[in-house]
Write a structure and sequence with these properties.
It is built from eight helices and seven strands; from the N terminus they run E-H-E-H-E-H-E-H-E-H-E-H-H-E-H. The protein is of the alpha/beta class. It has one domain: Rossmann fold (3-Layer(aba) Sandwich). A seven-stranded parallel beta sheet has the order 4-3-2-1-5-6-7, sandwiched between helices. Helix 1 (17-31) packs across helix 2 (44-54). The radius of gyration is 15 Å and the shape is globular.
Length: 169
């Protein structure tokens, strides 16, 4: 079994371009033989789950016990893992995955990206692939606080179509 973990905004609108791309991403990853893992809630997590569901694939939602009481269920998950802490949640999202794909997001998404980047950069998980989708990542790579190790260790794609076409998955 091969796992792909996806990260992205929980507040993405269902009519947004990113949400529609999330559905396409989940569909693509499932058809490529991946079991998809995500944070298990709404927004881009739900979109990826819908794509996996439409492809007949599996999508594992890794949620947080304290969030579960505040957020609606994601009905497109085939499995749900509930964690007690943010650290445990991140660990479950990372374990067993060889591919990480991030769409746009905010502080949570950035936290997840920087954690897996640190694992790759520190040679703890040297063989993982980190794929970032969206213009925000191209702009971020140009920032003065980002060093060349960021750019060397990630693949940046403008949109999901480019990722599908060029990622060789």
């Amino acid at each position: 079994m091969k796992f792909a973990t996806t990260f992205g905004a929980s507040k993405a609108d269902k009519n947004s371009k990113e949400y529609k791309e999330g559905i396409k991403l989940g569909l693509f990853l499932s058809k490529a033989g991946y079991i998809v893992k995500c944070g298990g809630y709404q927004g881009l997590m739900e979109a990826v789950s819908i794509g996996a569901y439409k492809a007949g694939g599996e999508c594992v939602g890794v949620t947080l016990e304290s969030f579960d009481q505040l957020r609606p269920e994601n009905p497109y998950l085939t499995k749900k893992i509930v964690c007690k802490t943010l650290y445990e949640r991140l660990e479950k999202l990372i374990e067993d995955s060889g591919l990480f794909v991030a769409q746009s997001g905010s502080i949570g998404t950035l936290n997840e990206i920087f954690m897996i980047l640190a694992l790759k950069y520190g040679n703890f998980k040297p063989d993982i692939r980190i794929c970032l989708i969206g213009k925000m990542y191209k702009e971020m790579a140009k920032c003065s606080f980002i060093d060349e190790n960021f750019v060397k260790n990630v693949e940046i794609y403008e949109n999901v179509d480019e990722f599908i076409k060029k990622s060789n998955i």
